[in-house]
Write a structure and sequence with these properties.
This protein starts with 7 loop residues before the first helix and ends in a 23-residue tail after the last helix. Helix 2 packs across helix 3 and helix 3 crosses helix 4. With 142 residues, the chain is an all-alpha fold.
Length: 142
């Protein structure tokens, strides 16, 4: 795809995924609180460091997707969070309206992240950050 080409579907999906990730990260900070999120992870037997990484990944990843910065890389890096969320909700059944939330919503987000990783930003994005050109392969940037 030409960099000047705008792919509306890719843009919409990137922005939607960015909004959802950012909203969930902010929810963990503002509503559940960081100590509450750490406690929840701990109750599941997941080390506290993963709670902090999840919060940072959701907030930072959401912002990066909204801006269109390293879209493919960020989408790929969000997969462990989304697969983890699917795993956490697995026992609650299919529907996210079930008590504790089902697994179909996080699974759908994981699929969306895969599509964003494949399609890229779709346009209307900041795109590349020149200083990181040597660190991140070009195909992961846009």
């Amino acid at each position: 795809m030409n960099k000047s080409t705008i792919a509306p579907g890719a843009v919409i999906l990137r922005l939607a995924l960015g909004i959802v990730l950012l909203a969930h990260g902010v929810l963990k900070v503002a509503v559940f609180t960081v100590p509450g999120t750490v406690g929840f992870f701990d109750s599941l037997g997941i080390p506290a460091v993963f709670a902090y990484l999840t919060i940072a990944g959701e907030i930072g990843g959401g912002i990066a997707l909204l801006a269109g910065v390293f879209t493919r890389l960020v989408a790929l890096l969000s997969l462990p969070i989304l697969i983890g969320a699917t795993w956490i909700h697995w026992a609650n059944g299919w529907l996210f309206t079930n008590q504790g939330g089902g697994w179909e919503f996080p699974a759908l987000l994981a699929v969306a992240a895969c599509v964003v990783a494949i399609q890229g930003s779709g346009g209307f994005s900041i795109g590349r950050i020149p200083i990181l050109d040597r660190i991140v392969p070009q195909f992961l940037k846009v």
